[in-house]
Amino acid sequence: MPHYGFNFLWMFSFQPGHAPGQVDRKALDFLAELGFNFIRIPTDYRFWTRDFDYFHPDESVFHYLDTYLEACQSRGLQMCLNSHRTPGYCINRPDLERHNLWIDQAAQDAFVFLWETFARRYQGIPPEQLSFDLLNEPPNVGDRGMTRENHAAVIRRAAAAIRAIDPGREIVIDGIGGGGTAIPELADLGVIHSGRGYTPMPVSHFGASWWAGSAGLPVPIYPGLEWNGKRWDQDALREFYQPWREVEAQGVKVHIGECGCFNRTPDDVAMRWFTDLFSLYREFGWGFALWNFEGPFGIVEHGRPGAVYESFHGYQVDRALLALILESRV
């Protein structure tokens, strides 16, 4: 079965004085009981690095990752270890970085060192239990000096470094342009290509303060939303994913590493969009992971206007959304 599950934000964004989050075993039990098989852990390297000293990590922090992995292994879940903020880049506030991953040798060396460190630490763990998602959501071409050429060079170098240590490790790479743009130039790399399920953004990110495009938007409709010169419905979604299908036709596996709808969109609109989106994923045979389990993009008390919750396995769950996810699995 393809990988279906959720992102868990236990090590997502460093705050001074705060340790990473602990394993939410109740949530993992819930997933295992319902037949999910995947969780993605976005990480922030600042949890184990101080003052941009990339090459002397506080490895005691990696104990948290060990406990996450052990909890997933015991429940038959694959853990996908993702570098969300990496030396020299993050899609959120990249200006906080001292170096630039796309143009600075120091950041590129640190990025490779990071993945070599994880490859050695988890060497021999079966790939069905652990995958490496190298970099969350690289930017658009031209942003911060990124080109398709230097992006491909950084990714190829990191993948080769991992395979030199642990040849069997499953590797995942995100699309560029914030994860949504396919990368056929890396179709030969033998890795999983990870897309996003957020298009059209005025549906999935209506009212999201961190997305500049949300300012002044009217309450969305779907189908029929007009955005970027298109009328959005399932046919438009199918067209959006066609470049990914073309890469897949070259023998690439595709997975949707993040998807979901922020909690300002009316629930009936969100559900019509989810229905079209997930039916395409089922048709394509693609697995997917919601950004949250419990939170504004999740299935537990997400807060979308009009949603109905039901007490289920100890949570207040959007049962309609959960049922749609379950029936959308291959």
Q: What is the CATH superfamily classification?
A: Glycosidases
> Order of strands in the sheet with the most strands?
1-2-3-4-5-6-9-10
Rg from C-alpha positions?
A: 19 Å
- The CATH topology annotation reads as TIM Barrel
Helix content: 25-40%
Query: End-to-end span in angstroms?
Result: 6 Å
Question: How would you describe what is shown here?
Answer:
The protein is of the alpha/beta class and 330 residues long. The protein has a single domain (4-327), classed as Glycosidases (TIM Barrel, Alpha-Beta Barrel). It contains nine helices and twelve strands. Strands 1-2-3-4-5-6-9-10 form an eight-stranded parallel beta barrel. The protein has a two-stranded antiparallel ribbon with strand order 7-8. A two-stranded antiparallel sheet has the order 11-12. Helix 8 links the parallel strand 9 and strand 10. It is globular, with a radius of gyration of 19 Å. The N and C termini lie close together (6 Å). The mean pLDDT is 97.
Strands, helices and their partners?
Blueprint: E1 4-7, H1 25-33, E2 38-44, H2 62-73, E3 78-85, H3 105-121, E4 130-133, H4 148-165, E5 170-174, E6 192-197, H5 201-204, E7 225-227, E8 230-232, H6 234-240, H7 242-248, E9 253-259, H8 267-284, E10 287-290, E11 310-312, E12 315-317, H9 319-327
Parallel strand pairs: 1-2, 1-10, 2-3, 3-4, 4-5, 5-6, 6-9, 9-10
Antiparallel strand pairs: 7-8, 11-12
Short structural summary:
With 330 residues, this protein is an alpha/beta fold.
List the defining traits of the structure above.
8-stranded parallel beta barrel, two-stranded antiparallel ribbon, 31% helix, TIM Barrel, 330 residues, globular, 9 helices, 12 strands, alpha/beta, single chain
